[in-house]
Fold:
Amino acid sequence: MTTGEIMRQRRKELGLSAESIAEALSVSPTTVYRYESGDIEKVPGDFLPKLASVLHTTPYYLLGCEPIPPEKASGPGAVSDTETAISPDMITQLKQLTPSELALVFAFIQGLLAQRKKNDS
Structure:
């Protein structure tokens, strides 16, 4: 799924109108629809955290890096909004990676978490 498709799906899950999203972000409803339809493919890095906040999720979820919105996750893997604060520059850098490069990044993260778990045991 594209960021726009995820954005639309999340907006509908929350029962929000494109107009209410536009108002919260100080953009026109047309801009919201253009993101959702893919007419605008690249969401600016400084816009993504604001959009994520309005949609009660994280930039990671909107980029397709998390399988479900954080508040739907439960247990030890659940992520709070304060734990997911990332800079717009980090988002920009992630967007420049190929899918295979992103897979390597997340494999590395999983390795770090496994090592932490091993050390905690």
Q: What stands out?
A: The helical segments are 3-13, 18-25, 29-37, 48-54, 59-62, 88-95, 99-120. DSSP finds seven helices and no strands in the chain. Residues 3-120 form a domain with the 434 Repressor (Amino-terminal Domain) fold (CATH 1.10.260.40). Confidence is low (pLDDT under 50) at residues 73-84.
